[in-house]
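Team,

Forwarding the record for the chain on the shared tracking sheet. I've put the sequence and predicted structure together so nobody has to dig through attachments.
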Amino acid sequence: MALAAFTAGCGSSDKSSDDSGGSAAASTTPAATTEAPKKEVTVGFAWYARSAPVNQVVESGAKAAAKDLGAKLLTGGPTDTADGVAVVNAIKSMVNAGAQGIVAPAPPGVGKELKELQAEDIPVATANSPDTTVDALYVGEAGVTAGKKLAEMGIEALGGPDKAKGEVLVGNCVPGIQSLTQRQDGVLAGLKAAPGLKVVKPFGTDPEPGKNYPIYQQQYRAHPDAVLILGLCSTDTVSIGKLALANDKKFKGAGFDITDETLKAVADGGAYATLGQGSFLQGYLSTRAVIEALQSGKPAPTGFVNSGTEVVTADNVAKYQALGTDAAALTAFYADQEKAPLDPQPMATQGQ
């Protein structure tokens, strides 16, 4: 995500189909039963800030679902911005190009468009950024719970609730996005477990790495005695790790998302921890839900599917680095979750 210029529309398409059939057996053996080919459908995957590494993982999951289920996937949306208008423009372009269903995040401004599609019997699913006014499937983390976990890891890095004392900085790359607001609420609530910590008012950063790091430099110069810096986005995590190393690790840092860059921040010792949000599963499961609805003719599911919170520290970072962002490796790694029943829960549980 970034607040720079954006492009919208159908950027590309991916198509795959399952092989089916079999060879005839001997005349004395009944013919092998073959599975009927799946109905070919086209789904639009409209996303924001597609250049951000974490969002590339989400898109990779969507492409894997389309490949596994034999669907055509149209992909597009703003490259460097989280602007809802740009996402809506991409959705409209995809529908005009033949998309029969849509998968998208729901930052401000997108929910209205998704509801209009539902009124036209076009199935939709959301992921990564929720809108509780849209009665659709949402695949993402339980935001407040994830924020509390980040606070817990920060306190742990400082030696525990009794030893953790001093100023805390909290950066948010896109203030106003509901999923990040939930993380922030969880962080602030979780930090109360250490009475000796004083939280400086959370500040906005930027999803674009080149703009993000200078903001952290400025904040640290203003608060040089900070003992803990927490970030709510992948670019925040990378900047925090870089800043810690540039200042002899005088403070502890932690943040969100699993990307090559955030994992390196942990491996290099600049970040104590980074928390994954099941990004690959967010793309896979939301896209799977829409494809299956179109292929079966049944309504798309609604409710909340928790994509989980993965804690990465120095103890297990090598495992995640070996996994990397390779689509085939990720598909295999999350195979059990990909194939399991979705079992959506009430949306109210997402904000917990």
